[in-house]
Amino acid sequence: MISDFVLFAILAFVAIASALGMLLSRSAIYSALNLILNFITVAIFYLLLDAPFIALTQVTVYAGAIMVLFLFVIMLLGVESLRSKTTLSWQQPVAIALAVILLIEAVYVIFIRSGILPQAVEVVDGFGSPKAVGEVLFNEYLLPFEVTSILLLVAIVGAILLTMRQHTGREYLEMEKTDGTD
Amino acid sequence: MVPIEYYLGLSAILFTLGALGVLIRRNAIIIFMAVELMLNSANLLFVAFARLYESMDGQIFVFFVMAVAAAEVAVGLALIVAIFHTKRSINVDEINLLKG
Question: SS3 of B27, please?
Answer without folding.
Answer: strand
